[in-house]
Design brief:
The chain is mainly alpha-helical. It has one domain. 52% of the residues lie in helices and 9% in strands. A hairpin with a 2-residue loop joins strand 1 (71-74) and strand 2. It is elongated, with a radius of gyration of 21 Å. 0% of the residues are buried.
């Protein structure tokens, strides 16, 4: 009987997303992303106007999380900072 060195397990959402994204990138290439980015930008400009772009340009690289008192940003999600907690990373 063969030894099970690698058991089958379910793929996480993160793994599935990465795998799917890599496949799309391989199959469609850079031009695909340029085109959908252009279309998305045109749609936003149509819906929100030039003032929207002026505002985000003014903000530049400011972090949203740093503006919200009592919260911190972790992997794209905001959460309340826990007082007295040490960083275990």
């Amino acid at each position: 009987m063969a030894v099970k060195s690698e058991e089958k397990r379910k793929m996480t959402r993160e793994e599935a997303g990465r795998k799917g994204g890599e496949k799309v990138a391989r199959e469609r290439g850079r031009e695909f992303y340029r085109e959908i980015g252009r279309k998305g930008g045109e749609k936003v400009a149509e819906e929100r106007g030039s003032e929207f772009y002026k505002e985000i340009g003014r903000k530049g690289g400011e972090s949203r999380g740093s503006k919200i008192i009592g919260t911190k940003v972790t992997r794209g999600r905001r959460r309340r900072a826990e007082v007295g907690r040490t960083k275990r990373e």
